[in-house]
From TrEMBL:
Keyword Phosphoprotein tagged: no
GO terms assigned for molecular function: zinc ion binding
Keyword tags: Metal-binding, Zinc, Zinc-finger
Domain MYND-type per the UniProt entry, residue ranges: 11-58
Protein origin, superkingdom: Eukaryota
Pfam family, one: zf-MYND
Classification via InterPro entries: Znf_MYND (IPR002893)
Record's protein name: MYND-type domain-containing protein
């Protein structure tokens, strides 16, 4: 039983004073059409009697709740993953109100794929999320594919990988190249997202790397997202096509530093997918986890992230030991340090 905050709330079936909230409706996310109200009953008998009238709306609400919860899980997992494979030196951070421009240089030493995340340049948690997501939208869709697929199993009618051009940016990242610094603006490039259509026809975006533009909501109704953040929808492809492209031999097979990093991420994300299956086999399926009460969900989600965090660390150490030292490209860290000493760039502000 749950007592409503408003004592005037009445039973959906008999219109008497209500004390029991429908577990499927409670704490439901809002839709593009407005706020979703929780359905209340005076007791279990009225809830059973009114189920036929309520079940269609309730199932739609439950699917929406699962999708938003799935978005939270994927988003947290993506930030966790990215911090473990962060591959950029932050050369400078410039701020003008909400607009932030960050100059970055990729790590490309023969023996170093990744670098520690520069927490010291982040003013707040939003800064960190934006930096983790920078230049990583294709990685987000590709390397989180297995997790998204597991979480959304049985939930959708259609799902696609979508490339869009974006607008209304509050954050911007500049990739500082060696020969032409500051010429590579992330807002000029396409942005990879996932479009999800639920079984009732409601359409949403799963924007895992939107924080790089100052867009921090992972799940948004598709029409709202397009109106607020999209200039053009460039193309729509089969779900998983981004994963296939990013992990294809042309990206991963070879001895250049970029190819080795792509191969590293391919191996690490494949290992992560296997560990996700292992966790579900010994605990609870991820779709079932999303349907738990809020308290139980938080507990299980914490267990899942703790497991995933440890397994990613072990897999990273194993893979990095295998691939380290194979890159056949000139080391650029020494040149970068020369720039820093000369004051050409500064490491954060």
């Amino acid at each position: 039983m749950s007592t409503p905050a408003n004592p005037h709330i009445t039973c959906e079936h008999c219109k008497q004073k209500a004390t029991l909230a429908c577990a499927g409706c409670i704490a439901a996310p809002d839709t593009a059409a407005g706020i979703v109200q929780t359905t209340w009953y005076c007791g279990a008998s009225c809830q059973r009697a009114g189920w036929n009238n309520h079940k269609e709306a309730c199932k739609a609400i439950q699917a929406r709740k699962s999708l938003f919860r799935a978005g939270e899980v994927v988003q947290h997992a993506f930030y966790m993953y990215r911090e473990k494979v962060f591959d950029k030196y932050v050369l400078s951070v410039e701020r003008d109100g909400e607009h932030i421009k960050t100059n970055i240089q990729y790590a490309s030493n023969q023996d170093k794929f990744f670098v520690p995340f520069p927490d010291e340049v982040c003013v707040d948690h939003a800064d960190k999320q934006a930096l983790l997501a920078s230049w990583a939208c294709a990685d987000a869709v590709a390397y989180m594919h297995g997790l998204v697929k597991s979480l959304l199993q049985g939930l959708y009618k259609e799902i696609s990988d979508v490339l869009v051009s974006t607008k209304n940016h509050r954050r911007r990242f500049i990739n500082a190249g060696i020969t032409a610094p500051n010429n590579n603006d992330n807002t000029k490039y396409g942005h990879e997202v996932i479009q999800v259509t639920l079984k009732n026809g409601e359409k949403y975006v799963l924007d895992i790397a939107g924080a790089q533009y100052g867009q921090f909501n992972t799940v948004i109704p598709w029409d709202v997202y397009v109106q607020s953040h999209v200039k053009d929808v460039i193309h729509c492809h089969e779900f998983g096509s981004t994963r296939e492209r990013i992990t294809s031999p042309i990206y991963c097979n070879g001895s250049t530093h970029i190819q080795l990093k792509k191969n590293f991420n391919k191996l690490l994300s494949t290992s992560m997918d296997a560990k996700i299956k292992e966790w579900q086999d010994s605990n609870i399926t991820l779709p079932a986890m999303l349907k738990l009460s809020e308290q139980k969900l938080l507990q299980k989600r914490g267990d899942f992230f703790s497991f995933l965090d440890g397994e990613l660390d072990k897999a990273k150490q194993s893979i990095q030991g295998t691939l380290s030292g194979r890159a056949r490209v000139p080391a650029t860290e020494a040149l970068l340090e020369q720039w820093l000493r000369k004051g050409t760039f500064r490491r954060g502000s």
